Amino acid sequence: MKQEQARATKDQPTFQIVEETLQASEESFRLLAEALPQIVWTALPNGELDYYNHYWYDFTGYTRKETFQHESWANVIHPDDREKTLDTWYKAVQSKERYEIEYRFWDKDEGRYHWFLARALPAYDYQGNVIKWFGTCTDIDKSKQAEEKLLYHASLARNILDAIVVTSLESEILTWNSAAEALYGWKEEEARGKFFDQLLQTQYPRDDRQEWLKEVLTKGYWRGELRQQRRDGAWLDIQTGVSPFRDIDGKIVGLVGIIRDITESKQIERKLQEREQQLQAAIDLAKLGVWKLYLKNNRIECSVRSKAHFGYSADTCMTLGRVIKRIIPEDRDWNLREALEQRKEYHGEYRVKWPDGSLHWIAISGQGQYSKRGKPFAVVGVTLDITERKLEEQRKDTFIGIASHELKTPLTTIKGFTQLLYRQMKRLGMTDQVETLAKMDGQVNALTRLVNELMDVSKIQSGLLEYSWEEIDIDQLVKNVVEMVQQMSSRHIIQISGETGRKIVGDRSHLEQVLTNLLTNAIKYSPQAQQVEVSLGCERDTIFIKVRDYGIGIPAEELERIFGRFYRADTARSRAIGGLGMGLYIAQEIISKHGGKITVKSKEGEGSTFCVELPFSPLSEQEANNDDRSSGGGGTMNDR
Ligand code: ADP
Asked: What pTM value is reported for the model?
């Protein structure tokens, strides 16, 4: 060894010095490299890696052998960065120029990629040839993340529609974004340095700002609503989230607030509240109960009053079953489903028995709520105790019954005396008196018809309208009535067409009464027209009797109601023509007792057609009487 050294010293004294110097500098480089908190590596001029410091081994977990035998580097780098990095490296080796690149290395401890900044410098000899590559890879993940965060926040602050305000703890405005400028009407440079509270007349929910500030600082955030004034004097409703703002050392130095203008929604909210209060007041005043029925489980959400209407306490959990349980069995015919199918309002009046045994009339009204596909999912509505009204109606009915009865007796007497006088005067040839008595008789007849109708209405109410069943030739009956009515009115021409060719079992006088009413109405409500048409027909097992006029007609919205008791269509022309609104009510009752129905088609100004449909095989007397008893149609509160 010594000999060799001596030879070398002798032959190549300069080389030895250079080599020693090189060795020494490489030694100190390695020492330095091992001490550095980053990956340090070296490569041969051709790009082949020949050294990594310990940071590499710690970071990757590879051994020396693994590092140099396999493509360890390629395993650690993010697949997306591999090609670009290799490309840069090959180009640098060829051009012998330094390079700098950012890429991601897999951190086995954290199980995620870290951003690294890689730099490589070539060392040249005197001829400019690369003798070594020195490289470093610095973990810049934290600063990269911070940079990304910063960029993100900056763009957020710029683009966010909410105003962002940064103030000192004393509320001095440090900065605010363009949304804040637009909201408050002050440019950032105008606002900066002013006090947030004073500039905007900020009204905190708490009078004491210090107290408020304490809450923000202790809790670490505050969310709430404020009132503030814009530059133009308009007041704003503000929703804000405030959090403390820290400097680099973590010391709280100010507040950051995200501010949202909720003036419009607040106004809507206030209006809604106002409306709700008004609605509530109206509901309270009208003594209405409010309910919502969920069809999927028959559960009912309802107000305390609605529960009380069915005799339940405020804490009862309501269901449809519970409601039905309280309704007396005879009244339990729900047509809710039908109303829902037809998307109609629902209305029903029911007798409800409370646990104390008392009976109450409850009106239930409701309307369906439908899904987008048109399926009903709930019903909302109101309930009302109508017991008082029903009692009142009963008293009225009783009064009408008694009054009509009381009127009937003297009227019959007057009628008898009028006819007696008429005959006597006629015999004595007292023409003037005879004429007067004939007029008087006509008026007495009109009065008698009215009283009879009143009595009928009263009897219908109490279920006491009597029927006497017999076989009737319906064509003949219609002919007789037409003739009779025609005699009374010379102004109109009543024409009959068609025939049924049928006999039915019915009550002759009541059917005559119905037809007379339809014909007199046709005449009464067509003062300008002369034509009235009666047509008869038969279809399968149904008989039709149609009465058509060309008179004033009935407005569409009144059509359903004209069959109601004492109901008269609300048109000036209709009102000008006398009547009490009983005829159609009685007619409908009579026809329905015959198992038929009565309908109307009409157009205002063009006339109306009433159609009576009677089943060809109506109920037998026995059946009808039974039916009569069972359906009742009314009755008093006492007999229920
Ligand atoms: P009244 O004729 O005594 O008022 P009705 O019960 O017979 O009572 O009729 C109820 C209402 O229906 C009438 O007030 C009228 O407004 C309307 N009405 C009935 N028939 C006709 C008709 N033929 N043309 C127009 N309106 C009619």
From this structure: 0.55
